[in-house]
Amino acid sequence: MAGARQGELYPVLAEAVAVHLGWVGAFVAENPAYLALGSDGQEQYLTMFRPDFVEEYVERWRWNNPFASRDGVVCLTRRGVATLGQLRLRATEPERDFADTFLRRNGIDDMLKIVVRSPATGAVSTLGVPFDGDRRAIKPGDLLMAATLGPLLSPYFDASLVPAAVRDLTSGERDVAELVVLGLGHEHIARRLNVSESTVEAHLTRILEKTGCGSLTELTAQWESRPMS
What is the Cβ-side half-sphere exposure of residue 155, based on CA atoms within 13 angstroms? Predict the structure, then answer.
């Protein structure tokens, strides 16, 4: 970790926790809206999950996530770590549906979430680790390591994990960029975001200017080369 360059932080982190801790499929949510004070609700996900998994989560399940519940926020704020199993005991029906329908359909039976705060900027990130109960359950040692890991990782999160060109995009521009990369046409994007096609085209013009890309093909290549999905 100490030898990782900034741009390699996420893949190095994911490999390290997989090899040394057995935490396979770890992902980072940068500035999670439910923990970042004054957040505009925008998050960046650095993950090996399929794009369609992330898209469904953002569009349908995000606010049914038990970690975003009052109990989840309190637990993460006070302890710096929480598990889906712990929060499920007091979960609402939509939150249980999130776990029993969405996550289990994708092979996830439990989830470990760790808070990582940048000491320099105060920015909040969370390190999430999915567990497949058939292969491995969360153990007491995992919880102990998780509580220790957040503060140990914080120095490496001083700089944003998201490239500057992407951080400069507005929330609307990021929404359009994500859908373009997924292969959606202008008309489909306009319907999805409830905006006009001219608005989509204006966003795309600014996206290309800000990222320095000369075409949508180049934008897609740059977007997918990030340490994300």
Answer: 6
CB-CB neighbours of 65 under 10 Å: 23
Residues 74, 87: Cα–Cα separation, whole Å: 11
Q: What is the largest CA-CA distance in the chain?
A: 54
Instruction: Give the 3-state DSSP-derived string for the chain, with helices as H, strands as E and coil as C.
Output: CCCCCHHHHHHHHHHHHHHHHCCCCCEEEECCCCCCCCCCCCCEEECCCCHHHHHHHHHHHHHHCHHHCHHHHHHHHHHCEEEHHHHHCCCCHHHHHHHHHHHHHCCCCEEEEEEEECCCCCCEEEEEEEECCCCCCCCHHHHHHHHHHHHHHHHHHCCCCCCHHHHCCCHHHHHHHHHHHCCCCHHHHHHHHCCCHHHHHHHHHHHHHHHCCCCHHHHHHHHHCCCCC
Output the CA–CA distances (angstroms, integers) from residue 227 to 27, 47, 84, 162, in the order listed. Answer: 10, 8, 25, 8
Residue 18 is encoded by which pair of tokens? 């997989």
Q: How far apart are CA 53 and CA 49, in angstroms?
A: 6
Task: For 7-66, write each residue's pLDDT tens digit.
Answer: 567 888 888 899 999 998 898 888 788 887 666 566 778 787 888 888 898 889 988 999
User: Residue 57 corresponds to which amino acid?
Assistant: Y
* pLDDT for position 228: 40
Q: Which sign does the torsion angle of CA 222, 35, 122, 117 carry?
A: negative
Read off the pLDDT of residues 197-217 as tens digits, 9 standing for 90 and up: 899 999 888 888 887 777 877
